[in-house]
C-alpha cells in the first residue's frame, strides 16, 4: 500500500522562535508527514528549542543541520544530535566519503547505544538555490545534474541512507540508484506559489511522479495566510 500523500510532506519551519514554530506545526498537523527544523531555528534555540517544538507533537523530525566538517567532528555532532531522535539528519555530500561514512556509522552506533530508532543520514548534493551558472564559481564540475549524480553515488557507496536533491534530478537518480535510496526533495513549488530564491523547482505532483520519496516545503505553506489550507491543497494535489 502506498503512503497517504500527507506522509510525504515535511514542512520547513524556518523561523527563530519556539512559540511560532510550535504554532505553525499545530496549524499543519494532520496535513503533513513531519516537520523540518534547520539552521535558522537551531542556531537561535538549540537542542532545547527543538525539544520544545516536537515534544508531544507526534510527528517525525527532520533535523536539517547540513553538517560539513572533518569526519571526527561530524561524527561527534551526529552523536550529539542523536538524543533528539530525529528521523532524518543532513550532512553535506561535499564533505567527502570519509566524512559521510563517519556520519553513517555514528548515527547507527549512537541510536543503538541509546536504544532509539535509527536516524537516517541524508547527504545534501547541490543546493536547489544553485544553477548552472554557479557551478564554475563554486569550483564544481557541471552540469548540475552530473555533479548531483556524482555526489549521490559517492554518498550511497559511503553508506548513507539517502540524499537531498532538486526535483529536476529525481527521475535520473531514481533510475540510477534504485527504489530504496531515499530522495528527500526541496525546491517544491505548487503552480500557485512564488519561486522565491529557488532555481530548480517542480510542482509537488511532478516531483512525486518523478520518484521523490519526501517533499520539503516551506514558504508555500508557512507564508500562506492559511498554512493549514495550503498544506491540505498540496496533499490534495498529490492524491491520485
Ligand atoms: O536540505 C534542505 O532541506 C534543503 C536543501 C536544498 O538544496 N535546498 C533547500 O531549499 N533546502 C531546504 O528546504 C527548505 C525549502 O524551503 P522553501 O523554499 O521555503 O520551500 C528550506 O528549509 C531549505 O533549507
Care to describe what's here?
The chain is α/β, with parallel strands linked by helices and 240 residues long. It has one domain (5-238): Aldolase class I (TIM Barrel), CATH 3.20.20.70. Helices cover 46% and strands 15% of the residues. It contains 10 helices and 8 strands. Helix 8 links the parallel strand 7 and strand 8 (214-217). The chain starts with 8 loop residues before the first strand and ends with a helix. Bound molecules: orotidine-5'-monophosphate.
CATH class: Alpha Beta
Q: Which strand order does the major sheet show?
A: 1-2-3-4-5-6-7-8
Radius of gyration: 17 Å
What is the helical fraction, as a range of percent?
40-55%
Largest sheet: 8 strands, parallel, barrel
The set of bound ligands, ions and cofactors reads:
orotidine-5'-monophosphate
CATH architecture: Alpha-Beta Barrel
| Structural class by secondary-structure content | alpha/beta
Q: Predict the CATH topology.
A: TIM Barrel
Q: What is the end-to-end distance?
A: 13 Å
CATH homologous superfamily grouping:
Aldolase class I
Q: Which helices and strands, and how do they pair?
A:
Blueprint: E1 9-12, H1 18-28, E2 34-38, H2 39-54, E3 61-67, H3 71-81, E4 88-92, H4 97-114, E5 120-124, H5 132-137, H6 144-157, E6 162-164, H7 167-177, E7 182-185, H8 204-210, E8 214-217, H9 219-222, H10 227-238
Helix pairs in contact: 1-2, 3-4, 6-7, 7-8
The protein binds orotidine-5'-monophosphate.
